[in-house]
Amino acid sequence: MNFIAWIILGLIAGAIAKAIYPGRQGGGIVSTMILGLIGAVIGGIIVTLLETGRLQFTTAALSIPGLIVAIIGAIIAIFLWGLFTGRTN
To answer: Rounded CA gap, 7 and 75, in Å?
Structure first.
């Protein structure tokens, strides 16, 4: 069941982040899920770092605060991907 929750969180967070971030991002549903999952990991790490002061590998949970953290992390992932690939939209 955890895996299905991760897929749902990734799909929702990735889709919302793509809608919020300015410019055009390519990719289909799979890339949106991957973006959301990466965002959940980035957001979970940032929140854990801010709460405990330790850099620890954690993920956001399937909840409203977890979704917000995953969206913020996915927006950061879109920004970093644009920096690495050199795309400016």
So the answer is: 17
Instruction: Give the closest residue to 21 by CA, choosing from 62, 64, 81, 61.
Output: 81
Helix residue ranges, H only, 1-89: 2-20, 29-52, 64-85
Distance CA 58, CA 54 (A): 11
Per-residue model confidence as pLDDT tens digits over 38-81 = 888 888 888 888 888 888 777 667 778 888 888 888 888 888 88
Res. 88: pLDDT tops 60: no
Segments making up each domain of the chain, as ranges: 2-85
The reply to whether the predicted model has a pTM over 0.85 is no
